[in-house]
Protein 1
Amino acid sequence: MSDVTKADADARDAADPLAGYRERFVIDDGDLIYLDGNSLGRLPRAAVDEIGRAVREEWGGELIRGWRHWIDLGRQVGDVLAGPVLDAAPGEVVLSDSTSVNLYKLAGAALSARPDRRVVVVDEDNFPTDQYLMQALAAERGLTLRTVAADLDEGLSTDAVTAALDEDVALVVLSHVAYRSGAVADLPAITRRAHEVGALVLWDLCHSAGAVPVPLRAASVDLAVGCTYKYLNGGPGAPAFLYVRSDLQPVLRQPIAGWFGQRDQFAMAGGYDPEPTIDRFLVGTPPVLGQYGALAGARIAAEAGIEPVHAKGMALTSYAVELYDAWLAELGFTLASPRDATRRGAHVTFHHPEAWRICQAWQDAGVLPDFRTPDRLRIGLAPLYTRFADVYEAFDRLRRITADGTWRSYPAERSRVT
Amino acid sequence: MSDVTKADADARDAADPLAGYRERFVIDDGDLIYLDGNSLGRLPRAAVDEIGRAVREEWGGELIRGWRHWIDLGRQVGDVLAGPVLDAAPGEVVLSDSTSVNLYKLAGAALSARPDRRVVVVDEDNFPTDQYLMQALAAERGLTLRTVAADLDEGLSTDAVTAALDEDVALVVLSHVAYRSGAVADLPAITRRAHEVGALVLWDLCHSAGAVPVPLRAASVDLAVGCTYKYLNGGPGAPAFLYVRSDLQPVLRQPIAGWFGQRDQFAMAGGYDPEPTIDRFLVGTPPVLGQYGALAGARIAAEAGIEPVHAKGMALTSYAVELYDAWLAELGFTLASPRDATRRGAHVTFHHPEAWRICQAWQDAGVLPDFRTPDRLRIGLAPLYTRFADVYEAFDRLRRITADGTWRSYPAERSRVT
């Protein structure tokens, strides 16, 4: 067993090459330990400036002329993310709408490109919105939804996905990093197998982007979507991104034919004739303030680079697993994530039969984790601002409130919004 | 002819009951006269505070706990607008996505509710995104698009719409106030005629909301969408709103089945089972910062009330028409809007064969109007902050640069983004 001391945690922080990035964020919480950066990333100092400037100088001062900055902002942020964070080429990534709307657009486009195939493959470990959207889309188009069983702790098996693939599959929609367990799917292998049967693949990168490398170009991924408010620190409800491989852009046609996809948009011509570029996947007027938040966050992620961020994420989650082994296993917790760090994103999850009551007690002890039904504590360890000392301190508080029964005074019943 | 003097304009301002609202906006442009509030409304002082507070205190300080404020924000803004601005009931209006995405959702829901009907009616005066979306949606569902001819200056004829209606019409999609001319369609009469043949009606309120009364409840309108960044001063790309009459909410089903529409959303259940309320028309994570901008703008509009705003809008556009009669008609301009003030929104439009070159010269003379192809100058007279003296001064500059040929030094060729 490793040397579980505060001094050891401090030593790890002292050796952390990304330690300086913490200063780039507004952190004035006192004793609070934030372990939910995988739901909402912290506020970059640069975002305060960018958004404040955009409000006062651009909206307030430039008024309608601000569009000279705003018209390309979504592509600008996409290009910031493309190379250093997502392994995509310039012009392959753009901000647009929400992840859910983007899933609908890209899945719709993919299904229209495979009109003779009748099956959409999803997996049961996928995020609920992905499942709802594909259920509805399949029903609307008279297609069959084929759901791959998954291990909710260990993640998606490539073999299980492969077994669901045949020449009748139009589209495969999967999460790269599972939202509950943090398990990483084998994106290159699954993409290759899907291509072997002629299917298109749409990856949900919500829990990947800014946490783990995403080999879009290396694996020749067709389509992807993701959000910018988690590890990319873009702000609450910041616009999502979408990726379409460059050769697919001119041939795919998405269903929501809005004017921001139109060729020579301001000619106000009568017939829909979309741009042959990533712009055809845009729809309506973009959320400018949210885009500036996303820009500030994306720049930090791009500057840090995904390889160092990934290395630190693995080190942090591994440290959490060490503390679990040392302190928590004997208190009724079990690991709900892969033990192999290379198979995890930047969050790690634990089961406990009293997870919800413990979660409330832990919050009152100054730690913000995430709860996931029915019995999971999900710990997001955002690499850009989380310290090893934070993990030590948070887990120290967790073992105390669990061991001394503090959690017993909290209700077992959950309120609706968690 | 009226007494066209600056003193007369000042007298009108002195008598304006809404004059005090100008102070609610950040206006430090010096000599600039802003006549494009129908494309992007000005910045409310309260928006600077709301957005700044949301960034620093909620995102930066409350972090994920900010959702206790954010989860209902879209409905909160909808309820602010519902009564005083839109004549809707609480729970019938919500912020969501962009106008274009909302058009797609509501039109999709309406078409699914009329599965045996084969025709969608639009009009040629409708905004391009409405036309593109309906073209694509009709094509996707194998329906016929029936386009009603319109007079692009005088607006939509109720008789022309009526002539396009029969028992095969599923949905009628029209703009209440035309984006070019500002002509107001007869919403109650058209809605009634559509209902007589059993069709649903979806009104685009982008140029109406915050400019003219919208008798949604009085006319028993089925569906409506609109944006918040024009007369509602919500900020660039602020989220759009959608309206669904309460009795239709539980029975309509929109195509983009995202998790924000799901009953008990955070239970993360596997099957899509939407809320029976306006929430089922939501899709993904809402753009929080944009919503706060929309909240600040909506509150001002609600406080002022739509009747005084409408009265001032008519007075301002009528004053512009007076100045046109006195100064511009003899310089080659012609009116491109209805002459009857009750048939106009809060913008008024003029033709001129050299409109584009004049537009550029006018901008350099410190006025921001809008140009619309091929030969229109569109003048937005946002009632909450535009003064009669602004109209006088702007038109005085316009007649000078037109009369003295200043415009001849500007290029006739347009750049792509106007």
Protein 2
Amino acid sequence: MSIEEYADVTVVGAGLAGLVAARDVRRAGLSVIVVEARDRVGGRTWNRPMPGGWTIEAGGQYIGPTQDRLAALAEDVGVETFPTHHEGRTTWRGARVPETFELARPVLDELDRLAAQIPGEAPWRAERAGEWDAETLHTWLSRRVTEPTTMALLRLVFSAVLAAEAEELSLLHVLTYIRSAGSTSMLTDVAGGAQERRFSGGSHLLAIRLAERLSSPPGADGAGADGGGAVGGGGVRLDSPVRRIRHGRDGAVVEAAGRSITSRRVIVAVPVALGDRIGYEPGLPGRRQLHQRMATGVTIKIHCRYEEPFWRAAGRSGSALSPEEWVSAVFDDSPPDRGHGVLMGFVVADRARALARLPAGDRRSAVLGSLARYFGRQAMRPTHYAETDWSTEDWTHGCYGSNLPPGAWTRYGPALRESVGAIHWAGAETSAVWMNYMEGAVRSGERAAAEVVAAVAGVPGGAPGRPGGTTE
Amino acid sequence: MSIEEYADVTVVGAGLAGLVAARDVRRAGLSVIVVEARDRVGGRTWNRPMPGGWTIEAGGQYIGPTQDRLAALAEDVGVETFPTHHEGRTTWRGARVPETFELARPVLDELDRLAAQIPGEAPWRAERAGEWDAETLHTWLSRRVTEPTTMALLRLVFSAVLAAEAEELSLLHVLTYIRSAGSTSMLTDVAGGAQERRFSGGSHLLAIRLAERLSSPPGADGAGADGGGAVGGGGVRLDSPVRRIRHGRDGAVVEAAGRSITSRRVIVAVPVALGDRIGYEPGLPGRRQLHQRMATGVTIKIHCRYEEPFWRAAGRSGSALSPEEWVSAVFDDSPPDRGHGVLMGFVVADRARALARLPAGDRRSAVLGSLARYFGRQAMRPTHYAETDWSTEDWTHGCYGSNLPPGAWTRYGPALRESVGAIHWAGAETSAVWMNYMEGAVRSGERAAAEVVAAVAGVPGGAPGRPGGTTE
């Protein structure tokens, strides 16, 4: 019935975290098989081909300062970066937004100060962790801000960054998030922040090239040809959702659709909430409870293509922000080397939930109305229009990343990274640095691989050990 | 490879909700197949056989006033009830507990008053829903209670009832929960409350008898013989975890391990969080987000059997309560007609998480220490000892029921019950009355069956329609 395979290590999930983990495991001389539920690699990075012959970056796409492991990966696989277009004025909509930012600044500064008190690797050990985890961001903000437009702006900042509303978020989660990135401005800024640069050819190329290498013989690591769509052979088994992992101290059997893989260690590298779709034998009570609490954000990513980046002529950068619009945040997403212009925007949290309930025509009108109010009537007539609603993706559940409500970090925080028997955990959510970002994914893959290599090296028959590859 | 079957209706989950739904669907003249992941029916009701030849009720076990549909089911399948032993003094541990209850009373009364303002069928429509859903129970309590023992007692009440801590709970969730039961005292009381009576032979018999009937030919409904362990043939397919449901307006295909069932309607009757282990095509964004947010409680249920119910001779009822003990709440669980005595206790929420981290011997010592402080040294020497930790059960994830953190009821409340295309939802969590209780499960099954029967009757080829049963 099903194919039986063996590898030293099985990686569940062929997103950035899983593929980086597989790369490092293999570099340590161990054999590895990656299983992936989808028919493609890349997870939440995706060069999505659209009708009309254009491609959008439907998922994570930026790289910023301090995202060093992501930069190293890009260099490793030969993907270049270029700066996000940001020259010109930022466009605001709503009552006195720039002035309101000044009013909001002390609150953001206080959050930065509190965040700095958090031990990055163990937020639950912060001196005031219990207090911060007992309330929502909303109740905390409400004690500090009474002026409605300031509150609206602060809510906008966090909903745009976390894809969740202030009522849904533990204050400790928000502080942990800020801590993991460094500061609120690192999270929000283009120049000097998380949105500073983009990848030539799209961030998806990182995963595609990593997967191609896994298909090459071990040792040919640097020589993987860029085979385009031909990923998924060799080391990556696509269309293989994992149903169950039977595990113990010395090994595990991963049961996926159509195949069963025995290995010494397993790295589960999927969004935390997705980890709940797998059965574990024996059960993992702590981790299971974490899965149940960590919900993905809700984001609809919008792309509009125009004959040219018309906003630039008007002195606008293409960056826009408003607490009053369907599209909360907009960026210039034009290709660096071509004539046409692209505006990319995020509809998040409550606005995304409301937008998703509208029929397609009304959604488009709502989005284009927002863009027109930001940039003028020309924005109403894109040559191409695309929406990516990640909450409809069966193997993602939502984007950008995942968040914890009150009471969870202090109770289940350690379960985020602690291995259980032969099972190790990776994925952007599990990183103490740049949690939920591509940088976090890469770091988590590197960390999980190091754990596995150390564990296997420490036991008889350790690395480099059995002949690698499959026994298909 | 897999067996292909057809029925008018497929029910996912053979707990009380699913089996009641199947009964009602079949009574309406439609054919039905129930698929169940476990090797038994009953879900969170379970006559669990223990080493040493005794059986415990490991899950839900009580019936109280206003639980009318559960009472009707018991009568329907011929299961008797008897009163929970409650004569004698309640045992308190901790500083001035009875006096403290007087201090806590105004807070409980206020919660009852607020709960009464909630429209039971639509908590998200309460006038103050947004406000109540924006904060945790903890922050609300903290504004009202400063005296530490009063706070400890109030926290005990809600952790014992909801199996979660005040920091984890939306105030709106707590109010909705109180509203669904009627009042806080309905939730907490033995006499006149949710713990008033028990089922002769165990609550599990309800599910077992319902399943037996489904194995009989249609029409022989009242005549199902009590076949004991022989459930699971006929209408119930055991060991059949559902992987995927492909669905549309007019029907659905349920793909379970080893079988594929085509039907006009599907009733998913599993705990909400478990619904997330199924793939849906097309995706169900709103429901998926609800799944991710609704976490099961954490409970370890304890049973200690003694030669006799020795506490009764000391004038104690066997009911005990303490904010300071491992075992927060204890009840006399002795069989009505035999000489020996049984104490049943709940270790909940933070205490359960801490207890689960101890080795087995230490857990037992901790639990027996609690019982000894309640009832004296005799409690240290049970003839039989049992723990049931529901969070280790792969097809339950936790008990008693499920709870929502802040921000979820107002955003995803409607998704709890709203059918999507051919998929309908049942399960104790989905009931507006006695949510999370067996009564809620029964009501949800009846409601989902009525929805399905109305939907099928309303279309050409409606009920009673195609020849029922399987095409195995």
